[in-house]
């Protein structure tokens, strides 16, 4: 069984814990596939086949250096179980079918869907600068892009509702176009046909930062899940 590795928590981002606390180089020692964000929430990361892609708020896709740092990321060694040919009328139906494919809502899982999408709407947060604002405030400072008729890969994770705060409850999906010139944190997509792989995890490793800022931060916000839902689903 493979282990899902997570650095940082969503809850730490809520009050503005955006300082980078692990290098990409170290992150990649725990997996070749995943999602995340860079220091300052500078764009959205898509990690495929050991390569890190950063989708920025200007819409460009970069390959950041290994010494760049993340406040939050998930990775795992790819060992997807092929579900086979997949089609859905849009994100709602696809999410329902992802849930069936991962078989249980009580474990963490990864999904990877490569195919042709009628449309994909994705967002990328603009780089924030210290002193950092709250996560909800950044939702008003993001770029939202839609591309029609696009081939690419949807990659992300399922977290049981129980672990909201550690992660985004439910699915947290990022996208990268096959042409490597479009992507981001997925807000919506249209009809899709492609190939689905799923990978479930009995083992999860949560690695927490040890910086003074993290250790001193008050993370006991009573409405942390509401704030995560507002920020992660937010659209302009
Ligand atoms: Zn995201």
Q: Write the element-wise H/E pattern from the N-terminal end onward.
A: EHEHEEEEEEEHEHEEEEEHH
* Global Rg: 16 Å
* Overall structural domain count: 1
What's the CATH H-level superfamily name?
Hypothetical protein, similar to alpha- acetolactate decarboxylase, domain 2
In DSSP terms (H or I, runs of 4 or more residues), the helix count works out at: 6
Largest sheet: 7 strands, mixed
Structural class: alpha+beta
CATH topology type: 60s Ribosomal Protein L30, Chain: A
Distance between the termini: 40 Å
Beta-strand share of residues: 35-45%
Q: What is the second-level CATH architecture?
A: 2-Layer Sandwich
The overall average pLDDT, rounded, is 95
- Low-pLDDT ranges: none
Strand order of the largest sheet: 6-5-4-3-8-1-15
Helix content: 10-25%
Q: What characteristic shape results from the CA principal axes? A: globular
Provide key terms for this protein.
single chain; 236 residues; alpha+beta; 60s Ribosomal Protein L30, Chain: A; six-stranded antiparallel β-sheet; 6 helices; 15 strands; globular; binds zinc ion
What can you tell me about this protein's structure?
This protein is of the alpha+beta class and 236 residues long. The chain has a single domain (3-232), classed as 60s Ribosomal Protein L30, Chain: A (2-Layer Sandwich), CATH 3.30.1330.80. It has helices spanning 10-13, 24-27, 91-102, 135-138, 212-216, 224-232, and strands spanning 3-7, 22-23, 33-37, 44-48, 51-55, 61-62, 69-70, 72-76, 81-88, 108-125, 142-159, 170-177, 183-189, 192-201, 203-207. The chain is globular and about 50 Å long. It starts with a strand and ends with a helix. The mean pLDDT is 95. It binds zinc ion. Zinc ion binds at residues 35, 44, 172, 174, 185.
